[in-house]
């Protein structure tokens, strides 16, 4: 019986020591690795010593085992505490998922340049943005996709003030595109651990950057007297955004931005991903956007464009604004645009036919969209559609229907 118990204790101690060794090799920061090492020094070694006591079974053996275990219990916690304090004061980096630092402000902490962690200070509250007149038929449920890129914050703020009414319920969707942030490219042999740490740092930076953007938009909503709530989600940005947009009248997105919080995508890729979004009711905002005073629908002459125009007429948004339907240089586009104008009049819209037809391989003249004109495009495959091609490069807001 003693031999069986001795073997079980020695084997249990060896397993604890093995798990602790794996923890020392794989845990992401010095503090967690120290925690694993402590378990090997006390629990693992203690089990093995107890097993040896049962194996020998003599009084002298038990005396030695007891003294050694007592020595471990007294010295290992003190040594671990001293090492942990030295690591903290010396500035050893913490795991990116660390939620609370209870020693902050209690102990001094040096800065380490080897693994910088982004710490952004909240900006000072800005003056309340000027509120201009808002268009009739403002969105009742407005979703703001908090993507980041050049001018994204200004585009979201200006778009919010341009289309939100007094009774608008605003949802601020703080969204992180996990596949983009987790893509580290090919990893060399033995580099998986460092790749995971890189992804952890990226996610921590992206969360902090997203929190700052959400904080800024919350202040804008408060200043405008709008009712709002904030949500944070992480995953496939396309799926999560489409799911959230289905429960809102209008989805506001900044132009040329994506939900990697401007951290990892190469130049131009964020704009390409945003252009491939096919979300009905998505409003692509730009900095300086004003409340729309007219709509300009680009008709491609196909049944999908006709269905998009019908959706716009039944949407109820911007119904009091004048509408121009301009055909593109495509077969049957002029006749389809004329039918669209007649349909708009039947729905009570003040509609006119734009001329001449636009060619999709040449940028549309900006004079047609000067002032507070909102371009309206068919939603299907927006980035590859003829209407989208005719507007490429134009710094104007676009509504997908």
Short note summarizing the structure:
The protein is α/β, with parallel strands linked by helices. The chain has eleven helices and ten strands.
Quaternary organisation of the protein chains: single chain
User: Using only CA atoms, what is the Rg?
Assistant: 31 Å
Mean pLDDT: 80
Largest sheet: 10 strands, mixed
Q: How far apart, in Å, are the first and last alpha carbons? A: 79 Å
Q: How many helices does DSSP assign?
A: 11
Order of helices and strands: HHHEHEHHEHEHEEHEHEEHE
Please state the structural category.
Answer: alpha/beta
User: Strand order across the biggest sheet?
Assistant: 3-2-1-4-5-10-9-6-7-8
The CATH topology of the largest domain is Rossmann fold
Number of strands: 10
* CATH class placement of the largest domain: Alpha Beta
Per DSSP, what share of the residues sits in E-state strands of 2 or more residues? 15-25%
Stretches with pLDDT under 50, minimum 5 residues:
112-136
Coarse morphology: elongated
Task: Tell me the count of domains.
Answer: 2
> Would you identify the CATH architecture of the largest domain?
3-Layer(aba) Sandwich
- Helix content range: 40-55%
């Amino acid at each position: 019986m003693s031999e069986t118990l001795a073997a079980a204790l020695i084997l249990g101690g060896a397993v604890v020591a093995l798990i602790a060794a794996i923890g020392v090799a794989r845990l992401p920061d010095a503090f967690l690795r120290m925690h694993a090492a402590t378990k090997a020094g006390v629990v693992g070694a203690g089990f093995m010593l107890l097993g040896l006591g049962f194996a020998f079974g003599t009084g002298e053996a038990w005396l030695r085992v007891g003294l050694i275990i007592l020595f471990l219990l007294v010295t290992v916690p003190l040594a671990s505490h001293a090492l942990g304090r030295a690591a903290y004061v010396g500035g050893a980096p913490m795991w990116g998922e660390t939620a609370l630092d209870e020693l902050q402000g209690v102990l001094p902490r040096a800065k380490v340049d080897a693994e910088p962690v982004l710490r952004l200070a909240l900006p000072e509250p800005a003056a309340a943005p000027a509120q201009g007149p808002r268009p009739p038929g403002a969105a009742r449920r407005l979703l703001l996709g908090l993507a980041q890129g050049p001018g994204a914050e200004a585009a979201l703020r200006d778009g919010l003030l341009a289309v939100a009414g007094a009774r608008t319920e605003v949802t601020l969707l703080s969204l992180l595109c996990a596949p983009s942030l987790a893509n580290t490219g090919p990893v060399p042999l033995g580099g998986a651990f460092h790749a995971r740490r890189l992804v952890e740092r990226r996610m921590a930076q992206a969360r902090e950057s997203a929190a700052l953007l959400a904080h800024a938009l919350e202040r804008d909503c408060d200043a405008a007297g709008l009712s709002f709530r904030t949500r944070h989600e992480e995953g496939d940005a396309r799926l999560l955004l489409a799911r959230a947009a289905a429960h809102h009248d209008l989805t506001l997105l900044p132009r040329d931005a994506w939900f990697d919080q401007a951290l990892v995508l190469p130049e131009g890729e964020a704009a390409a991903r945003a252009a491939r979004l096919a979300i009905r009711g998505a409003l692509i905002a730009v900095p300086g956007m004003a409340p729309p005073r007219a709509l300009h629908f680009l008709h491609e002459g196909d049944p999908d464009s006709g269905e998009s125009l019908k959706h716009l007429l039944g949407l109820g948004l911007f119904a009091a604004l004048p509408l121009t339907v301009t055909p593109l240089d495509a077969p049957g586009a002029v006749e389809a645009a004329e039918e669209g104008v007649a349909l708009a009049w039947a729905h009570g819209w003040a509609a006119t036919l734009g001329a001449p037809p636009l060619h999709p391989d040449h940028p549309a003249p900006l004079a047609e969209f000067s002032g507070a004109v909102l371009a309206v495009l068919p939603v299907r495959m927006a980035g590859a559609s003829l209407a989208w091609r005719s507007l490429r490069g134009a710094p104007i807001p676009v509504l997908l229907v």
